[in-house]
Design a protein that fits this description.
Elements lengths: L20 E2 L2 E2 L20 E6 L6 E7 L4 E4 L21 E4 L5 E9 L6 E5 L21 E6 L13 E10 L3 E6 L13 E3 L5 E8 L15 E6 L4 H9 L1 E2 L2 E2 L5 E3 L12 E3 L10 E6 L2 E6 L5 E3 L12 E3 L10 E5 L5 E5 L5 E3 L12 E3 L10 E2 L1
Antiparallel strand pairs: 1-2, 3-4, 3-6, 4-5, 5-8, 6-7, 7-8, 9-10, 9-12, 10-11, 11-14, 12-13, 13-14, 15-19, 16-27, 17-18, 19-20, 21-22, 23-24, 25-26
GO biological process, one term: proteolysis
GO molecular function: serine-type endopeptidase activity
InterPro entries: CLIP_Serine_Protease, Peptidase_S1_PA, Peptidase_S1_PA_chymotrypsin, Peptidase_S1A, Ricin_B-like_lectins, Ricin_B_lectin, Trypsin_dom
């Protein structure tokens, strides 16, 4: 594709087959590859290959690392059967992401969009050493040239293990889609579904969804169309932030240690403490779940929520965990942005803020509450 290709390139690969034949386009099935030249070494390191299903129903797609835990792809890739609805939560089929450094990581969660063919999938462990791609903030103009990348089928290969790229021109746009056409013989094929469509700045403007697949290996020779539909992503930045926010480490801005409830104490009433941060440990990860008045903060390991009991509203009262009940206001926390970065975490009942005193910066120090004053860094948390 364009600058990367010494010869005419073709985006091919497995477009995620979703049993729909929308008016003129064959929908992509999970797995899309660009049947153009291989991407130059080190180009598009954020590109991810997704392997879905087992030997009996295996397929592949492409995705893009957009956060150390999250990969953006097409929701249709994750359907249990082509064309079926993709629910949020655990993937219906075993899914593994292979990163550009060769590391394979299990996918543990799917967060699909309901208005377009896009989804975020959560990795079991965070990615280090690979910079995520950024989302564009404006739709590309009609006639703009974009680069697509994918691990899908090419003109001559069924299952390529290298990333390929291709050049596409924008024909038109709707509120949620881009209609594009391959330049020359470039085309999206099976396996390229879910892969990124990139602008000249290397930002994601779309997620590849479905294609005519003209010229892809296995497509009838009579099919020559290289048109495709991609899902717009330029208006998804807030959604990405919201999804990314739901599973997070909570790090004290002064001690640089993270809130946790030890896996050895999963019972009600166990104290919340701080510990050296390592997001590979699930007892340090929290799900921030919106409820009326704020958020519940649920431990990813033991499934219980942080609370300061309404019986102990005073300064110094401990932050503990308890079975989650969104109707209990003492489990509801308000996240208030602080100038300079970070948040105050204020309890809805006591109106006091969670902190670890500057006097106890050590490993294992308890989380307690105190009257809120965001000028004190030991009350500020990075999420």
């Amino acid at each position: 594709m364009s600058a990367l290709r010494p010869r005419a390139a073709r985006i091919s690969g497995l477009l995620a087959t979703s049993a729909l034949l929308s008016t003129a386009l064959m929908t992509a099935t999970p797995a899309v590859a660009v049947s153009g030249p291989e991407a130059a070494a080190g180009a598009h390191p954020y590109a991810v290959r997704l392997d879905i299903g087992d030997e009996a129903n295996s397929r592949a797609c492409t995705g893009t690392l957009v956060d150390r835990f999250w990969v953006l792809t097409a929701a249709s890739c994750l359907a249990a059967t082509p064309g079926s609805t993709v629910p949020a939560g655990k993937p219906a089929l075993k899914t593994t992401a292979t990163l550009s450094d060769g590391k394979a990581v299990e996918v543990t969660e799917v967060a699909p969009r309901t208005d377009r063919d896009a989804a975020l999938v959560r990795l079991a462990t965070p990615v280090t050493g690979i910079a995520p791609a950024l989302l564009a903030t404006a739709a590309p103009a009609t006639g703009a040239e974009l680069t697509a990348a994918g691990f899908g089928r090419t003109k001559t290969e069924w299952v390529p293990d290298k990333l390929h790229t291709g050049t596409f021109t924008v024909n038109s746009a709707t509120a949620t889609t881009l209609a594009i056409t391959g330049k020359g013989t470039d085309v999206l094929c099976k396996g390229d579904t879910g892969g990124p469509l990139l602008n000249s700045a290397g930002q994601i403007t779309g997620v590849n969804s479905r294609s005519w697949q003209g010229g892809c290996l296995g497509t009838p020779a009579t099919e020559t169309r290289t048109g495709a539909i991609s899902t717009r992503t330029d208006d998804l930045a807030q959604w990405l932030r919201d999804v990314r926010f739901t599973t997070a480490s909570i790090q004290n801005a002064l001690s640089n240690r993270c809130a946790y409830v030890g896996w050895r104490t999963p019972d009600n009433g166990a104290p919340a403490q701080q510990v050296d941060c390592d997001p590979q440990y699930a007892d340090q990860l929290w799900k921030l779940e919106p409820v009326p008045g704020g958020y519940q903060i649920r431990n990813h390991f033991n499934n219980r929520c942080l609370v300061v009991s309404w019986r102990t509203p005073e300064d110094g009262a401990p932050v503990t965990q308890y079975d989650c009940h969104p109707e209990f206001a003492d489990q509801v926390w308000k996240l208030e942005p602080v100038a300079g970065g970070g948040y105050s975490i204020r309890n809805s009942v006591s109106n006091k803020c969670m902190y670890v005193s500057w006097r106890t910066p050590e490993w294992g120090a308890p989380l307690t509450q105190v009257g809120c004053d965001s000028q004190y860094v030991d009350q500020v948390w990075k999420i």
